[in-house]
Amino acid sequence: MTDNEQLEMLRLLIFKDSQYDEQDDLLNVYLNCARAIQLNALFPYNDKATVSEDNFRLRNWQVRCAKELYESSDRSGVQSYSENGLNVSYFANIVSQSLMMELTPKAGCPKESDESDTN
Fold it and tell me: Fewer Cβ neighbours under 10 Å: the N or C end of the chain?
C-alpha cells in the first residue's frame, strides 16, 4: 500500500469520500505520527527501521491509527464523560490499547557501531 493509497483510505474512513482533499496536509501529519508510534513500538532500539510498502498489514495499521489520532484530537483525551456526577475519565495513551496490542515488538541484539563511544 503506497502513501497515496493510505491517504485515500484515510479520507474514506473519516470523510466517506476519497476525493475530499482539503485536509490532506493534516491527514499526512497524522499518518506520519502513526508511523512513528508504530516504529517506536515495533523497533524501540532501531532508529533506522522502516515499514515497506509491501507490508499491507502494517500500512493498514498506520491508517487505523491515524484515524484514531484524528478522531481523538478534538476530545482532548477524554474517554468518557457523565453529567450529573461529573465523572470524566481520560485515555491513558495516545492510541487505544486494543490497537497497540496488535503490534509485537521485535527483539534483537544491538549491533556495534563503527564509531566507539568515548563518553
Answer: C
3-state secondary structure of 87: strand
Domain count, the chain: 1
pTM of the model: 0.76
Residues 80, 24, 43, 50: what is their CA dihedral angle, to the nearest 10 degrees? 160
- Structural domain for 14, as ranges: 3-100
- Max CA-CA distance within the chain? 62
- Name residues whose C-beta falls within 8 Å of residue 23's C-beta, 6 or more positions apart in sequence: 15
Type of residue found at 76: S
Q: Which is higher by pLDDT, 57 or 71? A: 57
Cell readout for 53 is: 510498502
Buried/exposed code over 55-70 (b: 16+ C-beta within 10 A; e: otherwise): eeebbebbbbbbbbbb
In a domain, 93, yes or no: yes
